[in-house]
Amino acid sequence: MFGAVPVIAGFLAGWWISIPLVPESRIFLCVLAGLAGGLLIDMVFLRSWIHHAYSMKPYVWMAVYLFYSIGMFGFFMGVPVFNVLLALPAGFFVGGWGAHHGADITRMREAARRCAVFTTGVLALVCVASASIALASPSTASDLQGMLRLPFWVTPAMIIGIILSGGALILSFQWWLTIRCAEGAYGLFIARANASTPHPGRSSFTG
């Protein structure tokens, strides 16, 4: 999760910053330079980032999540459905954090809910952005009609209905998936810790 950030950021920076500054034939050199810069950052800092991952401030991980959310939104051209997949690494990290710090199941569930509030809030912003683009585009109705092979014309009211119902569905799924992934990862890490170093007083996940 950490290692890809400098590489992707370097790639995009080398690409977009170079467009107005260098001839088109040399843009790929700037892209390679950006990639190399990202890899160099990983070589210098990644080991330390991984070692201190569970002791970093929450805003660091929130920034990483926002980076991937924006990237996912752009990569899939404003379709918010794929952003739901980010609940998997987010929940997995929170579960690992809980196990690493010896959190009991009550504290773990509180952390999972806080994580779900954040991930669902970010997805809500993504949905708003996606809805704004869809409502502003004059081709949205024809795009939906062609994509879904509908035998009737899609009206603005139908578009709004799809946005509201689809948004509510993926937001609910995002909330559920974040919590379930966090609790599942916590249980997995606790079970592995119990198996490797059995101790009668060690907590276990039962939720």
What do you see in this structure?
This protein is mainly alpha-helical and 207 residues long. The protein has two domains: 1-51, no CATH class; 56-196, no CATH class. Helix content is 74%, strand content 0%. It has helices at residues 4-18, 27-51, 58-75, 87-100, 105-136, 140-148, 156-196. The radius of gyration is 21 Å and the shape is flat. The relative contact order is 0.11. Mean pLDDT is 88; it is low at 201-207.
State the end-to-end distance. 27 Å
Biggest sheet descriptor: none
Count of alpha/pi helices: 7
Helix content: over 70%
Number of domains: 2
> How much β-strand is present in the residues?
under 5%
Number of strands: 0
Backbone shape? flat
What is the H-and-E element order?
A: HHHHHHH
Radius of gyration: 21 Å
Low-pLDDT segments: 201-207
Q: Which structural class is indicated by helix and strand composition?
A: mainly alpha
Mean pLDDT across all residues, rounded? 88
